Amino acid sequence: MLPVVALVGRPNVGKSTLFNFLTRTRDALVADLPGLTRDRQYGFGRVGPVPYIVVDTGGLSGAKDDLDGLMARQTLHALDEADAVLFMVNAREGLTAADEQVATMLRRRGRPVRLVVNKAEGQDAAVVGAEFHRLGLGEPAVISSAHGDNVRALMEAVLEPFPADDEAAEAPEQGVRVAVIGRPNVGKSTLINRMIGEDRLVAYDLPGTTRDAVEVPFMRDGRRYLLVDTAGVRRRSRVSEAVEKFSVIKTLGAIDAASVVIAVLDAREGVTDQDASLLGLAAERGRAMVIAVNKWDGLPPDQRDNVRRQLELKLPFLDYAPVQFISALHGTGVGDLFGLVDDSHAAAHRDLPTPELTRVLQDAVSAHQPPISRGRRIKLRYAHQGGRNPPVIVVHGTQAELLPDSYRRYLANIYRKVFHLQGTPVRIELRSGENPYAGRRNPLTPRQQRKRERLMRHVKKRR
After folding, report:
1. How many CB atoms lie within 10 A of CB 136?
2. What is the structure's pLDDT at 402?
3. Distance of CA 147 to the CA centre of its chain
4. Domains and CATH numbers, the chain
5. 224 - beta bridge partners?
6. pLDDT category, 229, cuts 50, 70, 90?
7. Closest CA to 403 of 424, 362, 374
8. Which residues contact 174 (CB under 8 A, 6 or more apart)?
9. How many angstroms separate the CA atoms of 329 and 321, rounded?
10. Helix crossing, 242-257 with 273-284: angle to 10°?
11. Which of 126, 142, 213, 385 is 20 to 30 A from residue 258's alpha carbon, by CA?
12. Rounded to two decimals, what is the model's pTM?
């Protein structure tokens, strides 16, 4: 197992900035606002002598309200998982009462703690770290996570007790990357907690609780998954906070990086225009998709029938996506999502042999001829695979670029049915061969050219 390093401290001391520096990513949302991180964020550390897992946590403010209590519980979970703890404080603000409270809590947890004084760029390390000796946590490490000052030396010291393991020289395979998307408060975090069997994410009955795209790796039946909880996406006119606008960007990035998307809908509110818009973005990116209709328990029959009709009327462009009716709170139907995710992932990455693709194309053309364009019939000759995730099928022919969208959809549906590509969109690309007579005036076809040559030889003999 890779060592686990947890970043803890009060809000706005630079934990997410250090997380991004250690992982060489921008996975953690960063802004000059306290309380931005609310869930545990996991990543693979890339700065240091050995591989490790780094965990970003929410700030410990000491507030007693429900949301801060849930955030503190997430931080305590991270401490229980950690092999080493980096307790971060702010050099610009100096030692505070909140820092002393966090230090007391860390001593009680009994984990190896390294005190880290952050935001110390341009200052004398000895002077900056002097007052923090009062915490009784040993010699503080003075760094700047924004600029990377002394960060590598810090990680070398923290990871020294963990010998390099050749078998763990690389980060483990992440497995199937699944983004869970939906409007605010439809139950995305509750669904992930139910899928992994523990309260990993803050689930709170308040829209906008999740602000970042949070990655949750886990294993089920010997297969690795990486679930990505995303911020709820609302109508643009309702997105006023700068932080929420950044959260939307992170959600779209999570969609783009995913192999499969689980789109969560609220059955009690039906399929809204915002649902259709968000799911349309995922379909536009070519993501394999599973639709999870949540809060299905206790819904009266007439309302259930209405939701089914809305799925057909408002989401006709997602006819390839399987629909699962679930209750994330009670667990009904949640276990079946894994099979649908596996099938959709396999379909999106399937190898399609060229002879079979061409045979299916010829059968489809025989059953339904392409239309006539500019007085000539469009001819489709052969096909091959041009990409995966989503499957791209390249069709070659004469005047193929003039093929109408309706016939493209016909071909996509035929290929999906024959190759069992449920759960993923199928894209059809059309290519036409170059016309060797393009640019000539009244060009002759090869057959006409041969006939003309025979006629000229016959005329010469007669002469």
Report:
1. 11
2. 84
3. 28
4. 4-168 (3.40.50.300), 176-348 (3.40.50.300), 350-463 (3.30.300.20)
5. 219
6. confident
7. 374
8. 217, 224, 226
9. 23
10. 50
11. 385
12. 0.59
